[in-house]
Design a protein that fits this description.
mainly alpha; two-stranded antiparallel ribbon; 4 strands
Length: 495
């Protein structure tokens, strides 16, 4: 109740913030101060004195950044922020109240941990590494100066994202606070000089209303259907003994489908709050329609219609997936997939079910990648074959996802193993067999051999699929601004 009340208050505060403290009417200093104070007030109201952990974690991390220096501070900040989060999660889970989510102050700390580590790496990239060493996305996100303490605390604890996020890049946040979200650059006549100009600020009202409608529907579904289809019923002894396999598969899918609306509600409401404050504008499509999904955390349609494990993960908790990619996957030298899933498990918490889910997720991801690389190109020859492939992969993906995340919901070891044993670990066994029988051979460039041979055939199809690759989904307003420079051109991002 505290969470919902605070988020509704934050929504009203966001409307007031955009109306009366717009960047055109007041200084960025005032906007930082107000956003921070409102955020700390909400944290104090919702979590009491536990909210002090937010300031302690942010304050010590800032001291580390200043004292250690740009060469190594990203490593120390990463270890400290994640370690502090883990200690708080251990005390909350094993000392206070196992399995209960009341006063779960570690939830906002998860978002703050993402912001601390992301910014530390962005400062390291921008102030220590050479540009030629950076990937295109790292170059765009790189921060070229050390933020002030006020900017740092405002970024971590502003009222728009302190309770439920989502994560945003530091450059995007500062651009929003300073009112540069709608400033664009255009090449001058000589092709070298850049001309700055400002485009009319679009209204977020339509996007906010649409997202609030999604929130209402999600909440309604959660309060009604979720109670009728509890995930725990999958391990009910009578159900396991009497239900047929088609019934078990159907109920598994339906129960996990019913468990998702509460996440849809929380993340969409958080997105609406940011939009109401004027934050989250990504750009215009070719028809001139404004898109307010720069920091959106999910795409419901793509989630429910996912035809691959990767497609599901790319559209579920989007900003966390981008964080894992930026701080781990892109920088890991050995087994990046395994390291990324392991980091995700540590970040989520200390319940054993989390680790079972992410260990299973490693197997599923690798097996799905092997199957896709070895067989997908055979089904791209005709639209009918592609449709057949999509239907089969949708069904398999939805069951695999549901099978994987059951321990995430059950939390404990015993019920999780009870579920997997009732299914005879069938998908674990299938994944291992796939990896054993269909090894994924890599070329020197790290691409799959089959993928290289079939790239020209599958590229057009891939371009229509929703993913979060660097070239398919802009992650900062600076990318959007470049794309919007010529109004007659559509932005490079796929809509």
């Amino acid at each position: 109740v505290n969470f919902v009340v605070c988020q509704l208050f934050a929504l009203l505060a966001a409307i007031w913030f955009r109306t009366y403290l717009h960047s055109s009417k007041t200084s960025s200093f005032i906007r930082h101060i107000v956003a921070t104070l409102l955020g700390l007030y909400l944290a104090l109201f919702c979590f009491g004195w536990y909210a002090l952990h937010f300031l302690v974690q942010s304050g010590i991390s800032y001291c580390i950044m200043i004292i250690i220096g740009v060469e190594s501070m990203h490593k120390y900040c990463f270890v400290f922020a994640l370690g502090y989060l883990t200690v708080c999660q251990i005390t909350r889970v094993y000392i206070f109240d196992y399995g209960q989510y009341s006063a779960d102050f570690s939830g906002p700390m998860m978002i703050i941990t993402q912001k601390i580590t992301s910014l530390a790496y962005e400062i390291h990239d921008g102030m220590f590494r050479k540009d030629e060493e950076l990937t295109p996305s790292q170059r765009v996100l790189a921060v070229r100066r050390m933020p002030s303490l006020l900017e740092y605390v405002s970024y971590n604890c502003n009222f728009m994202g302190i309770l439920a996020g989502p994560l945003c890049s530091y450059k995007d946040y500062i651009t929003f606070i300073e009112g540069r979200s709608y400033h664009m650059t255009q090449s001058g006549e000589n092709g070298k000089e850049e001309v700055q100009y400002e485009r009319t600020e679009p209204s977020p009202n339509e996007a906010v209303v649409q997202k609030l409608l999604v929130c209402g529907l999600s909440l309604l579904v959660h309060l009604t259907i979720s109670n009728m289809l509890p995930v725990e019923y999958n391990i009910d002894e009578r159900f396991q003994a009497t239900a047929s396999w088609p019934t078990k598969i159907t109920y598994l899918y339906m129960s996990l489908l019913a468990a998702r609306p509460k996440y849809y509600f929380a993340w969409t409401l958080a997105d609406a709050i940011n939009n109401a404050a004027g934050f989250g504008f990504r750009g215009y499509d070719r028809n001139g329609a404004a898109h307010w999904d720069l920091i959106s955390n999910l795409r419901i349609q793509q989630i429910e219609m996912s035809t691959s494990f990767k497609m599901f993960l790319d559209n579920w908790n989007i900003q966390t997936a981008l964080w894992l990619k930026r701080v781990c996957y892109e920088r890991a030298s050995i087994s990046p997939t395994i390291q990324t899933f392991f980091l995700s498990a540590i970040w989520h918490g200390v319940y054993p079910g989390y680790y079972l889910t992410f260990l299973t997720g490693v197997l599923m991801t690798l097996a799905a990648r092997a199957m896709r690389n070895n067989f997908r190109h055979y089904f791209l020859k005709t639209p009918q074959l592609k449709l057949f492939y999509d239907i089969i992969t949708w069904a398999v993906t939805q069951i695999a996802i549901s099978y994987t995340v059951v321990p995430f919901v059950l939390l404990s070891i015993k019920p999780s193993f009870t579920f997997y044993s009732s299914w005879y670990y069938c998908l674990h066994v299938c994944s291992i067999l796939v990896l054993w029988l269909l090894p994924v051979k890599k070329t020197q460039k790290g691409k799959n051999i089959h993928e290289n041979h079939q790239l020209s055939q599958s590229r057009k199809v891939d371009e229509r699929e929703n993913s979060l690759g660097e070239d398919s989904f802009p992650t900062t307003n600076s990318i959007c601004n470049q794309n919007q420079a010529k109004a007659s051109r559509p932005p490079s991002s796929r809509q």
